[in-house]
Amino acid sequence: MKHIRVLDKYTADRIAAGEVVERPASVVKELVENALDAGTRTITIETLEGGLGLIRVTDDGCGIPAGEVQTAFLRHATSKIEDSDDLARIETLGFRGEALSSIAAVARVEMRTKTADAQAGAQIRVEGGDVLSFAETGVPDGTGVEVADLFYNVPARLKFVKNARAEAAYVGDYISRMIMARPDVAFRLVQSGRSVYKSAGDGDFLNAVYCVYGAEVMPHLKNIAYDDGYIALSGCVGTEQIGRANRTAQSFFINGRYIKSQKLSFALQRAYDARLMTGRFPFCAVSIRINSQEIDVNVHPNKLDVRFRQEERVVRALLHAARNALSEGSAAKAFVEAPLLEQRDERPFSAGRTNTCGSKPCRPTRSPRSRRKGSCSTTPARFPRRSNSTPRRRPLMCRPRWSGSSRRSLGCGISKSSGRYSTATGSRSSTRGYSSSTSTRRTREGSTNRY
């Protein structure tokens, strides 16, 4: 029987790091959240090899005092909360105090930081959870963190990491969400020397959406504005023209935090009713403001899942706001405001009826929609030549409804009986279809010819 014992610090740090640091995008997420909590207005993120080679996050926030830099790398060391009562009203993005210690346990970390009132900054190097050096240095106000050789001492985790291109895509996806979550902060993402995102940071939400998705989606966006005193929603939803094949284009933010919520996604889908085809999903970027005491963000270490105290009320608010946004200024107005077509000439052809487009002779035709009633319209005798890209289709031609003895033959049929062939021709009758006999097939009021 194995005995119970306390794990050593080396093993415990790697277990904790496995919950917080899953891939390079997790490191970027934790460092960006720390920068936003520090009150930064400009953040620069640089990565090499998808983040496995190097991750550098630089901000112009308040910085860390030199005397607290080493404490920041200890487990459960944070300035965001003080006691358990603060967990019920979390206002910051980070609060667990595990980010720096978990990252330093599986990578080589170097930090430079300085506060506004300090004469000099501080520099610290941590490798595998151990502090290698700490000294004063000259740096600008703010904090810069470099993470190199991620998972260098955890080969089991490194096996499950994808290639550099896929990991870079995860990093870019997270930064794109944060650009829309915090339009008041200027983000700049550089991957392998190439600038991917650069937001203005002017506080305009539409400018943030334009930075991420480009100009092609802007004409198809509908603004959301909803506030009932309990919850406030803002942002935009897309029309059915920019529906996607998956839900990756749906972004939900709560108090500036990017989250994933299946119920909010389903509520948005219901708001579209029959606007979208099966297998298509709406586009949205919705920001939710709610009292921090009405939500619980301490669900998972990645802080992407959130519980609501009144979930049904939040879902109804999103459903109502999305429906109102889609109903205002919908594309259906284009059909109402379109000019009416010219009135058709209803005179009979014997009265000199001519085509409205000119002097070309016209002949009676019948559109597929009016085929049952036999109503006629006019089309030119010659049809325009179609381009090679347009599929060819013979026009459906007919004549006005025939009556009396002038009924026109519908066609003929051939049958074989006792070694002889017979033909049957028929005409339109009151009941459509054909009647059959034992030797020949003929139509009602038809004649049979044998040969």
In brief:
By secondary structure, the chain is an alpha+beta fold.
Features:
22 strands, disordered C terminus, alpha+beta, 8-stranded mixed sheet, 451 residues, 5-stranded mixed sheet
Please, could you describe this protein's structure?
The protein is built from 10 helices and 22 strands. The chain has helices spanning 9-20, 24-37, 69-72, 99-105, 155-158, 164-181, 205-213, 262-271, 311-327, 333-337, and strands at residues 42-48, 54-59, 108-114, 121-127, 130-137, 142-148, 186-191, 194-198, 221-227, 231-238, 250-254, 257-259, 284-290, 295-296, 307-308, 362-365, 377-380, 409-417, 420-427, 435-436, 441-442, 447-450. The strands form 6 sheets. An 8-stranded mixed β-sheet has the order 5-4-3-6-2-1-7-8, with helices on one face. A 5-stranded mixed β-sheet has the order 9-10-13-11-12, with helices on both faces. Helix 2 packs parallel to helix 6 and helix 6 (164-181) runs antiparallel to helix 7 (205-213). Residues 330-351, 353-383, 395-410 and 427-451 have low confidence and may be disordered.
- What would you call the quaternary organization? single chain
Q: For the CA atoms, what is the radius of gyration?
A: 36 Å
What is the residue-mean pLDDT, rounded to a whole number? 77
Order of strands across the main sheet: 5-4-3-6-2-1-7-8
N-to-C span? 103 Å
The helix content is 10-25%
Give a count of the beta strands, DSSP E runs of length 2 or more: 22
Structural class: alpha+beta
Poorly predicted segments = 330-351, 353-383, 395-410, 427-451
Number of helices: 10
